[in-house]
Amino acid sequence: MSDAEKQQSRLREFMQLLPLTSELAGLPRSEHGRYYSEEQIQARAITLRHAYKVARQVLMELAQQ
Q: Comparing C-alpha atoms, which of 29, 28, 9, 19 is closest to residue 51?
């Protein structure tokens, strides 16, 4: 599998897990017209990364059963 194919595969996996990741992260949706600061965006991104790792782990555990 080439690097481009691996990247595409990871992107597809991320997009498929995005609904679960979003729910696990528990981040509220932003209000219309409200903008986040750079620090707030970074904090939300970190939360999403951690939630993605958990979502992926859950998927792997389910696949092993």
A: 19
pLDDT at position 65 over 90:
no
**Token pair of 43 as six digits:** 């904090």
In angstroms, rounded to a whole number, what is the distance separating the alpha carbons of residues 23 and 51?
A: 8
SS3 35: coil
**What's this model's pTM, rounded to 2 decimal places?**
0.82
Q: What is the pLDDT of residues 17-50, one digit of tens each?
A: 999 999 999 999 889 999 999 999 999 999 999 9
Cα dihedral 56/19/9/4 (nearest 10): -120
Q: How far apart are CA 50 and CA 60, in angstroms?
A: 16
